[in-house]
Description:
Strand content: 5-15%
Number of domains: 3
CATH superfamily of the largest domain: Multidrug efflux transporter AcrB transmembrane domain
Pfam family, one: MMPL
Structural class: alpha+beta
Subcellular location: Cell membrane
Transmembrane segments: 207-226, 233-253, 259-279, 300-323, 335-358, 391-410, 594-613, 620-640, 646-667, 687-710, 722-747
CATH topology of the largest domain: Multidrug efflux transporter AcrB transmembrane fold
Radius of gyration: 33 Å
CATH architecture of the largest domain: Up-down Bundle
Distance between the termini: 53 Å
Protein name: SSD domain-containing protein
Helix content: 55-70%
Shape: elongated
Membrane topology: Multi-pass membrane protein
CATH class of the largest domain: Mainly Alpha
Amino acid sequence: MYKKLARYFLFTALLFTIFFAYSLKDVGFDYDFERFFPEKDPDLTYYNKYREVFGEDNDYFLLGLISVSGDFQDSSFLNKVDILADSLRNIPEINEVLSPLEYRKPVKTPLGLVQVPYFHLNNPEKYENDIKRWKKEKPKPYYDLTNIEKGSVALLITHESINDNIKGSRELYQRIETLTKQYFPEYRLAGKLKAQPVFVDKMQKELLLFLSISIVLTTLILFLVFRSFKGIIFPLMIVVISVLWTIGFMTVTDKKLDLLMVMLPTILFVVGMSDVIHFSNKYIEELRHGKLKLKALLKTVKEIGLATFLTSLTTAIGFFTLYTLNIAPIREFGVYTGIGVFMAYMVTLLVLPSLYIFTDKPKQSYNKKNKRFWLNTMSRSFRYVFKNRRAILLSSILLTSICIIGTYNIKVNAFLIDDLPEQDPLKQSFVYFDQNFGGVRPLEIAIKSKSDKSFLEKETLGEIEKLTNYLDTAYHAGNILSVNTIIKNANQAYHSGNFDYYRIPETESEMKQIQPIVNAIEKRGGFDMLLDSAGSYGRITAKIKDIGSELTTQKNMALKEFVEEEINTSLIDVRLTGTSILIDKSNNLLIGNVLKGMAIALIVVALLMALLFRSWKMVIITWIPNLIPLLFMAAIMGFFEINLRLSTGIIFTIAFGIAVDDSIHFLSKFKLELDEGKSVLYSLKRAYLSTGKAIILTSLILITGFLSLLLSDFGGTFYTGLLIGITLLIAMIIDLTLLPVLILLIFNDEDSRKKIKKSRS
């Protein structure tokens, strides 16, 4: 009967494996950072309406062109910049190319409005005077696109939306790069257009890298532990099937691999391997006790099946709690990884026993030397723990106190290209523009008229001028553009290009003087990107340096205070908006979301322990040993200034869900012994000797798997591997030291005291 059932399980598993393997042909990769915006958030709703009027605030890139000679006045350099700008405009996907060399100052003459160039590109003799006038007048926003001292020019280029179009962005970037290389051996490009394909390429590379490393390292550990073909191939087969099913399920449900999902195969690999190790170790242990193969399997399924179900459930809960966050990629990561954990459990419980039924008993079951080594090791460890109970307890209290201090130092802070290492070319490009051209981080301010006054009336323009001046001084913003920019240009044009009149007209009569020029600009569509068609809704757009979400949030709060105190809010309504604001908000919501997720995980695990073990003591014993490793991880982040951000905020719930597994295995065995009428001390020793080896082996495999993430180019992935690896190491040590001490302390009944006295004598 059991063989027939085993054949059915294996055949069914084969069909599912073929189906999911076939679906992998449609696996896709996604880098749409807008999906990290907080869902159903009023700021997101506002921004969606805002971009319907003014378009995306990040569909642009900066192209930095560097003179080979280092001299801005190099005529060859300046003319090549001009040629390249014209060539880029011929690309259909390019909407606009803003070149500072093409800027012409409008001047009113008896013959009408004349555009006078700042740079006379065909007359090098005028370069020196051109540059002197340029540096004196600093025409906005074009001046911020030049760096005279370093001999470089930046082109600000807007393009069609490329959201979720990896192929399109890659092709457009390649065409731009090909054109640029024809004229400039040295250049820099920063923007979503470049970042999107770079991130996708890195995700594809790292997915294969992590899987390969996980397989190699796990194979090595399995060989050292079991030293048999079946001891290696069966566990590997189980986890590979589990990973394949999960990724196949994602593909079938049209879910692409993103920055977080790239970690999923590695996580499932190590978590699934934990189930397999506990099962195989128990099976071998039963064979060593002389049981026949079938009886050994049945007892293993009975004992390990429940414990493994509990560990899979608690691990999945850790991931499922991520669904409480209002950020789509994190929610999806939690759901799919949780489903993957249960898939790994089902494959382990149904396929692995079926494979063992049709194969001979593992040779490892007769390895007396190996058995003696582990028995001696765990016996010595148990005696050490028993003799040093007080020291272990006091050390744990001291460690917890230090960790609490470190936890208070955690900061929520993120940068635009935070996930890339300092030496990465993409990050270097963004840093280059921060240092040389005022930054690439978009800053958007929406302005809505609250009266019947037009945006082009003097009173309204005065309030906008206060805002732009504040951005200049408080944010050191560059490329500031608003309706005021056009009005000041018009005023300067009316006064024959005199720079002293690059300002808002001071009287109503002066406003009326420039009105014909303003009307002409309006007819040519000069206000289209700054005002809506009704003239009641406008914007200020600028670029700032990427100083991190913490400092930027502080500046944004100061801006809101400035608006409340200095701006006539009965005249205009001012609101910060844009993609940068939304990403910062997602990061700032992290602490609350992390605490919420942890609280849910703790409560659910507590309820499970109370329900299954019928003991509040088990709840306490489960909580304490698994909260200390989390505090330790938080302390590391605090002491070593590892910032909490979107890519690292998820590690707490993941770590808790995984770390609690070994505690549950230990407590399950302890409870089974107690249920058979054994004393607390005897039950504790049996649980320690029985599960200790599996705890060490699974922890080593889990740590090894997560440490493989250290090879990632993404900072979030790197720190996920490092911090969870360290957390699991601390959790293993706590489970083998503090957990037994807590059991003796909490289950300190008369029987256990007698046993303790007897063991001391």
